[in-house]
Specification:
Blueprint (H helix, E strand, L loop, with lengths): L1 H38 L4 H18 L3 H16 L3 H28 L1 H7 L4 H16 L1 H16 L4 H23 L9 H27 L13 H34 L2 H37 L3 H28 L1 H8 L3 H33 L4 H25 L3 H26 L15
Helix pairs in contact: 1-2, 1-8, 1-9, 1-11, 1-12, 2-6, 2-10, 2-11, 3-4, 3-7, 3-10, 3-11, 4-6, 4-7, 5-6, 6-9, 7-9, 8-9, 10-15, 11-12, 11-14, 12-14, 13-14, 14-16, 15-16
C-alpha cells in the first residue's frame, strides 16, 4: 500500500508540473508559428525567408540555454536540499549572465543579418523580408534571454502556471499585433515580415516585465545584494558545468538543422517553404513530450536533492511511457490530416505534396524524439550532462547531417530523404540514452544533496 501511495504521489506531482508546462510550451510554439501561418496569407516566399531566419534564431537562442538549463537543474536540486540562499544566488547570477549574452547576440543578429542569410543561400528575391524580420526579432533577442531564465526559476519552484499565464496573454497580443501590422489594419501600414517581427518583439517585452514582477515580488522576494558579496563564483562555475554541455547538445542539434536547412535550400524555394510549414506543424506532435521532459527534470532534480534516487528513476520510466503514447497518437493524427493542413496554408501543389509526404515519415521520427527529449532532460537534471552532449554530437552529425545530404541530394530523394535521415538519428540516440538511464551511472553526478553543502 505504501509503494502504491508513493507512486501515486510521484505521478500526481509530475502531472501538476507538466500540465502548465505543456500549455506554456504549446503557447510558445504558437507564438512562433502564428508568424509563419499568418504570413502564409502574405506570400510563400516570405514564409521561406522567415523559416530560414527562425532556424538561425533557434541556433543563437541556444546560447541563452547555457545558463537557463543550469538554472533549472541547480534550482531544483538546491530546493530539494533546502538550500534557499543558494537558489537566490543561482537566479541572480543566471539573470546577469544571460543579459550580457543576450545583448551580444542582439548586436550580432542586427548588424550581420544580411551576410548570415546570404551564407544560408537564401534567394535574393526574398532576402529583404528575411533581413527585416531578423534585425527586429534578433535585435531584441536579449528580452528572450532574460525571460527564459525567469521562467526556468519559476518552474523549478513548482510555479509553472505563472509562465503559462504570461505566455497565454502574450499570444493573444501577438495575434492582434500580427493582424494589424502584417496586413495594415486600422490605419497602420502593411509591413509584412517586419510587422510580424515588431509584434513578436513587443510581446516579448511585455512578457519580460510581467515575469520580473512575479518572480521577484511574489515567489522569491527579498533577494539581497549581500548574497552577491563576494560574487558567488561557485554558483557561476556550477551553472557553466551544467549549462555548457547541456546547451552544447542542443546547439549541436540546432546547428545540424541549420546545415540541413542549407541542403534544403539546394532543393529550391518550394522545398524550403514545405520544410518551414512542416517544422511548424510537427512541433505540435512533440509538444507533450517536451512538457513531460521538463516536468520530469524538475521532479527528478527535487528527488535527487532529497537523496531519493529510486524515486527519480521511477519518474523517468513513467514519463517515457506517457510521452511515447501521447506523441504517437498526435503524430499519426497529424499525418492523416496533413494534406488538408497544407491546403489551408498554400495553393502550391508541389509544397502540398512534399509536406504531406514528410508528415508520414515524421511518425517514425517522433517516436525517437519523444524518448530523446525525456531521457536527455532527465540525465541533465541528474547532473549527467556530458554523456548526452557527446552522444548527440556524434550521432547528429554522423547520421542526420551526413545522411540528409546523401539521401536528399545525392540519391535525389529530396525533402523526404532528409526526413528519413532525421528519423534515423532520433531513434538511434533514443536507444543509446535509454541504455544510459538504465545503467544508473547518473546517480553519482548530483550537485546538491540534503544535508550536504555544495
Amino acid at each position: 500500500m505504501k509503494k502504491f501511495s508513493s507512486r501515486h504521489l510521484v505521478r500526481r506531482q509530475l502531472f501538476n508540473l507538466t500540465s502548465p508546462i505543456f500549455i506554456e510550451i504549446l503557447l510558445i510554439m504558437l507564438l512562433g508559428s502564428v508568424d509563419v501561418f499568418m504570413l502564409s496569407r502574405y506570400s510563400d516566399g516570405t514564409v521561406a525567408a522567415v523559416g530560414v531566419v527562425n532556424q538561425l534564431l533557434s541556433l543563437v537562442f541556444l546560447l541563452f540555454n547555457i545558463t537557463t538549463l543550469g538554472t533549472s537543474v541547480l534550482c531544483a536540486q538546491y530546493l530539494g536540499a533546502e538550500q534557499k540562499d543558494s537558489v537566490k544566488q543561482v537566479i541572480g547570477v543566471s539573470v546577469l549572465v544571460n543579459l550580457l549574452i543576450g545583448l551580444a547576440v542582439s548586436a550580432g543578429m542586427f548588424f550581420y543579418a544580411a551576410p548570415l542569410l546570404r551564407l544560408m543561400g537564401l534567394e535574393e528575391s526574398v532576402i529583404a523580408d528575411g533581413v527585416a524580420y531578423m534585425q527586429i526579432v534578433g535585435g531584441f533577442a536579449f528580452l528572450q534571454a532574460v525571460s527564459m531564465t525567469l521562467s526556468a526559476a519559476l518552474r523549478a519552484h513548482n510555479k509553472a502556471y505563472y509562465p503559462m499565464a504570461v505566455t497565454a496573454l502574450v499570444n493573444v497580443l501577438n495575434i492582434g499585433g500580427n493582424y494589424i501590422l502584417i496586413f495594415g489594419k486600422f490605419g497602420f501600414p502593411a509591413l509584412g515580415a517586419a510587422g510580424a517581427a515588431v509584434s513578436t518583439s513587443a510581446c516579448r517585452l511585455v512578457a519580460l516585465v510581467l515575469l520580473c514582477y512575479i518572480l521577484f515580488k511574489k515567489v522569491v522576494p527579498g533577494i539581497s545584494v549581500k548574497l552577491f558579496r563576494p560574487f558567488p563564483k561557485d554558483k557561476l562555475k556550477n551553472l557553466l558545468i551544467v549549462g555548457l554541455p547541456a546547451a552544447g547538445e542542443q546547439f549541436s542539434y540546432n546547428f545540424s538543422q541549420v546545415v540541413i536547412t542549407y541542403f534544403t535550400v539546394m532543393l529550391g524555394t518550394a522545398a524550403v517553404a514545405a520544410r518551414a510549414y512542416a517544422m511548424n506543424i510537427v512541433m505540435f506532435s512533440y509538444v507533450f513530450a517536451a512538457a513531460i521532459g521538463q516536468g520530469a527534470a524538475i521532479s527528478i532534480g527535487h528527488f535527487i536533492g532529497k537523496d531519493r534516487d529510486s524515486a527519480a528513476y521511477t519518474v523517468e520510466r513513467y514519463s517515457i511511457r506517457l510521452a511515447l503514447g501521447v506523441t504517437l497518437v498526435l503524430s499519426v493524427l497529424t499525418a492523416l490530416v496533413g494534406t488538408n493542413i497544407f491546403k489551408l496554408l498554400t495553393n502550391n501543389p508541389e509544397i502540398i505534396r512534399m509536406g504531406a509526404l514528410v508528415l508520414y515519415i515524421d511518425v517514425v521520427l517522433e517516436i525517437g524524439r519523444a524518448v530523446n527529449i525525456t531521457s536527455v532532460d532527465s540525465l541533465n537534471a541528474a547532473g549527467d550532462v556530458y554523456y548526452p552532449m557527446w552522444t548527440g554530437i556524434i550521432v547528429m552529425w554522423g547520421v542526420a547531417a551526413l545522411l540528409s545530404y546523401v539521401f536528399g541530394i545525392c540519391l535525389g530523394w529530396g525533402l523526404a530523404g532528409i526526413w528519413v535521415a532525421m528519423a534515423l538519428d532520433e531513434n538511434i540516440r533514443a536507444a543509446v540514452f535509454e541504455r544510459r538511464w538504465h545503467s544508473k551511472k547518473w546517480t553519482s553526478k548530483a550537485f546538491a544533496r540534503k544535508g550536504r553543502i555544495h
